[in-house]
Structure formats: structure tokens, C-alpha cells
Amino acid sequence: MTLRIDMHSHFFPLISREEAARIDGEDAPWLAPAADGETGMIMTGDRAFRPVSRPLWDPLRRIEEMDELGVDVQLMCATPVMFGYRYPAKVALQWAQRMNDRALDMCAATPQRLMVLAQVPLQDVEMACAEASRAYAAGHRGVQIGNHVGPKDLDDESLIQFLTHCAHEGIPVLVHPWDMMTDGRMKQWMLPWLVAMPAETQLSILSLILSGAFERIPRALKLCFAHGGGSFAFLLGRVDNAWRERDIVRENCPQLPSSYVDRFSVDSAVFDAGALKLLVDVMGEERVMLGSDYPYPLGEQHIGQLIDDHPGLNERAKRHLLGENARRFFGLPELQLSGA
């Protein structure tokens, strides 16, 4: 059987209102389970943020669904509302440490099948580096970061320093879009998620390429962008053309933008066979990994089906996308991949 590693899924532990209030009495996220025990609501203070289902906080229920879906291993990361980047750094560090420890608790019963990525207080680079290293040593398989901290994009000096630290320490990094750009025009139909979220990811990738940051970050960095890299693959030709024709685009970028695709990976959460084929053509079959965004409604409901049913991918490519790429990216030993 083909190994299946879903490297992009989310969790949200059973954070009580009281626990959240110790961090922020007004807006900290917490989870209010419904009376049926199967559903709940992520809250931010008194406001409902998002309806959720039990696999988000119950690892045993998650394993049951993984078995039904044929998923061998799932890497979980924080729901981005948990990041805490707007808190004072020391408060955010305490929050991240608590959430990271809770995440490991969720994996304790089935550590060969459930694994986690840590969160860090990215608003303070020294604290973020220290917590990334602590969490990685404690058993986290990498770290998930938001694609920006307020106005700071990934080309900010502090974020370059963090990525460089992860490269030196061998800590894989997943970049997830969050706090999407909007001036209020995208009010309906989940448009911030459908329009701004892919744009945020493309912005992050191009900020590293066009700023020259990739010239300074060690090539050892294992870096992945969620949601297929957002708009990046489809619009890469436009970026290359701009680099050739306008000196202001290539001012800090010595190489053609498309030449940097070997510096990062993306997940497969694009939901369309044509889009996945384009993504593999642009990135190469060894730089696309199965990622579902489970258990949210905008994720792939039948995890891996887009890859399984794709007429344009040969069996070798499918093996790479479904599991082998993630196994190498996260450095997972063979022994840990035989559980399902």
C-alpha cells in the first residue's frame, strides 16, 4: 500500500474560557463544546468565531476518521486564531508553551500516527527561536508560523533571523496564511478565505524571492507553504516577465524568480486536477506534499482523492505526493510509518 501522510491538518484543544482569560480576558480563543459532544464553537471572548467538530479536539475520534479515510499519519498544527501574535511577547510565549504541551498530549496515545507542529511567539525573534528549539526537542516535528506579524512580511529582518535559526537547527517550517488583508470590501461569501488567503501566501513567497532573502537564508531550510502556495504557481509567469522587463522588480533579486522554486515546498490542497497538475509542473513532484486542511469544511473531504484519481500523475509521482515527500521533509523514520 502507498504510504499516506497528511502534513497539513489542524487541532484546537479543549481550552476553557477560564484558561483563555488568563492570557486575555477579552478576546483570547477558547472552545465551547455543544451538548451533543460532537460539535462545538471556537469563541474569541464572547464572540462566536467558527463552528467545529469533535475530531478537532479529540485524538481518538480523529484516528477513527483517519482509518476511514486511509490516512496513515497526520501532522497537526494550531488553528491560526491560536497564534497570539498580538499579545505582549512574554504572554505569547507562555501561551505558545501551554498550547505546544497540550498538542503533545493529544498525540500521546498514538505518537506514530499523530504528530504536531509547534507554534511560537513570532513577535519576538529570540523567544520564538528558543521555543521552536524547545518544542522540537520535546517531540514536535517542526513549527507552523503565520505568514506575517502585523505589517512584517517574511522578508523582515527578524523573520529572516527566525528562518535562519530553523535552518541551522534542522526544524521544518510550515507557513500558513492568516489575518487576511481586507479593507472591508470582502464582506460576504467567505471572500477573505477565497481571495485574500491565496494572495497572502503568494505575497509571502514573493517577499522572500524578490527581497533577496533566499540569498541569505541557508539552503538547508525546510520550508513549506500551505494551500498549494496560494496564487503563486498560476501567476509565476507574470512575475518572471516583470523581473525581465522592470529593473525595480529585480533590484534585490539576482536570479529569475522561477529559479527559486527549489527553495520551498507546497501542500496539495488545491481541489482541482488542473490546478494540481500545474502545481506539480511548476514545483516538481518532489516538492508537493499531501495536505488536507482537515477537519475544516474548506479542506479536502476525502483526503488524498485528488492525487489518487489524477489521470496526469504516474504511480511514482503519486507515491511522492501521498507520503514519501513528507517523510523526507519531516525526517520521519520508516518505523513510524507502518501503523495504519
Write down the oligomeric state: single chain
Helix vs. strand class:
alpha/beta
Q: What is the overall pLDDT average? A: 94
* Largest sheet data: 5 strands, parallel
Give the helix proportion (percent range): 25-40%
The radius of gyration computed from the alpha-carbon positions, rounded to a whole number of angstroms, is: 19 Å
Order of helices and strands: EHEEEHEHEHEHEHEHEHEHH
Spatial strand order of the main sheet:
7-8-9-10-11
Provide a descriptive summary of the structure in words.
This protein is an alpha/beta fold and 340 residues long. The chain has a single domain (59-337), classed as Metal-dependent hydrolases (TIM Barrel, Alpha-Beta Barrel). It is built from ten helices and eleven strands. A hairpin with a 2-residue loop joins strand 3 (39-44) and strand 4 (47-53). Helix 4 runs parallel beside helix 5. It is globular, with a radius of gyration of 19 Å. It starts with a strand and ends in an 11-residue tail after the last helix. The model is unreliable at 335-340 (pLDDT under 50).
How would you summarize what this structure contains?
Helix content is 37%, strand content 15%.
Outline the secondary-structure elements.
Elements: E1 5-11, H1 17-21, E2 29-33, E3 39-44, E4 47-53, H2 59-69, E5 73-78, H3 89-107, E6 114-116, H4 125-138, E7 143-146, H5 157-169, E8 173-176, H6 191-210, E9 223-225, H7 232-245, E10 265-267, H8 273-283, E11 288-289, H9 305-308, H10 315-329
Parallel strand pairs: 1-5, 5-6, 7-8, 8-9, 9-10, 10-11
Antiparallel strand pairs: 2-3, 3-4
